[in-house]
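Before a colleague's protein record goes any further, I have to sign it off. Thanks in advance; the entry in question is below:
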Amino acid sequence: MAFWVEHKINIILNLVFYRRLQSIIMATVLFICTGNAARSQMAEGLLKNMNSSLNVLSAGTKPEGLNPKATIAMKNVGIDISNQHSKNIADINWKEADYAITLCGSANETCVSMPWPETCKKLHWPIEDPRTAENFQSARDEIKRRIGKFLEEF
């Protein structure tokens, strides 16, 4: 019986250690736009697909819900983001981000005044707010290009 209890304790300790180690080793990338409806959602889906060793989050300064056109644009390249949802930046642990990438001017203006940790690298990728299906595809492709460059320099 004592062996069984000790074995369970070791499993739990290893799991806690692994999760703590994972949070230390894995870099966290946070994509931010105003609505967390399109650009930041597509960026989250793309980076998760391109590099699963990173912790990838997205949030908005004024979340609006996932835009169905973003879901379609991503589905067209084989990535399903339909289970993602809009989050307010205040509701996530943004201070743990290693990289904060804003995708619109409004979010960039808001985020400039936030007390980011010194270790967080802030980037701004000004991507136009997509309206049409073609705009969504263009935004997706531009974000993918920028993520590719980001990963090369990572």
